[in-house]
User: What shape does this take?
Amino acid sequence: MKEISITTQFKLFDLITDLPNDVQSLMDQAVEVRKNAYAPYSKFRVGVAIALDNGKVVLGSNQENAAYPSGLCAERVAVFYAGAVYPAAKILKMAITAASDTNQTTAPIPPCGSCRQSIAEYEIRQETPIEIYFMGEIGCIYKSDSVKNLLPFMFDKKYL
Assistant: This one.
């Protein structure tokens, strides 16, 4: 038996005001769109702002459904919208924020597994990494230089 070791690296920002100006603006937009989340079941609201290489910003918030699997996370709402409306644009950066209606989220909240896989599809397709910034309602912000840090064993078209 052999053992492998995988190391990932993230940058940590203590406050939104410590972020670069363009990312701070993205995170502010993510916080604002988070308020539009339709989350009557989980009471957990997520907002996302995506910067595209064409200068556009795409926003998304989670949208739940009584038939739980039919809902969609904020990250996929935004990524799929970007792919549908701006198919030639590359995703440069994503800002993600999450808040609960029942308790304060102070830890950075990363994308779920399905969202990581969806982000990976776009990162692989565009052949450039996507910077991902994520936070809770308050507190520090983590920065990943690529979804590969969050999903080191990505499944992609080369396996098909």
